[in-house]
Structure formats: structure tokens, C-alpha cells
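thought: user wants a sequence for this fold. calling inverse folding tool.
action: design(structure=
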């Protein structure tokens, strides 16, 4: 009788909890519930180490791969390039809205002008 009561209690708890395993037990003949890993954060694209991004030819995604450049600055670089022609030097990035001395210093090793 005691075994029967434990079985009923376990089955009832299993049903009430929406099929969630109770006390680490599985009903006979069932597979353990599938676990799902938490959604991975989207990877942030970065330029390969040792490779410089040509700011005269890079598309928006290529510019966003640069550390310190997000969507807005990438669009500003492309807009500046379209209005003023190709950059003559990396220092010309200071003419782009949102890029100051600190950002330029951070970018200097990541970009080239060809």
C-alpha cells in the first residue's frame, strides 16, 4: 500500500507541474527532458588580427568590425566618403562627425587608406 501511495503522489505531482520532473525521478519508459542552452549572444564581428580595414572601400559591416565603431559611426564614415571622396589619410577620419582624437587614436592601428 505504501508503494502504491508514493507512485500516485509522484504521478500526481508530475502531472500538476506540467510534466516537470519531481525529485530527479522520471516516470518509467520516458526519456529525460531535453535541456536547451541559453540563447547565445550574437557574436560581434571584429577585423582579423593584423589586418587593416581600408576605410575607402569598406562597407558598413566592415567598418562596424572595427573596435569603437558602431552602426552610426560606420554610416557617418560612408556618408562622408560619398560626399567628399576617398580619404587621403587616416587623420581625415577626424572630419567625420562623432570621431575625435581618442577614437582616431584607437582606430589608427586598425585602418588603412589605399
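)
observation: tool returned 114 residues.
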Amino acid at each position: 500500500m505504501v508503494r502504491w501511495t508514493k507512485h500516485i503522489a509522484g504521478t500526481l505531482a508530475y502531472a500538476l507541474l506540467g510534466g516537470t520532473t519531481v525529485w530527479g525521478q522520471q516516470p518509467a519508459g520516458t526519456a529525460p527532458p531535453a535541456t536547451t542552452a541559453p540563447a547565445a549572444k550574437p557574436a560581434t564581428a571584429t577585423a582579423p588580427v593584423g589586418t587593416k580595414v581600408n576605410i575607402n572601400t569598406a562597407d558598413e559591416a566592415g567598418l562596424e568590425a572595427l573596435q569603437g565603431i558602431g552602426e552610426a559611426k560606420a554610416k557617418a564614415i560612408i556618408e562622408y566618403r560619398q560626399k567628399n571622396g576617398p580619404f587621403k589619410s587616416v587623420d581625415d577620419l577626424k572630419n567625420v562627425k562623432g570621431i575625435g582624437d581618442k577614437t582616431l587614436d584607437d582606430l589608427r592601428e586598425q585602418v588603412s587608406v589605399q
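thought: summarizing for user.
answer: Here is the designed sequence. The longest helix spans residues 2-16.
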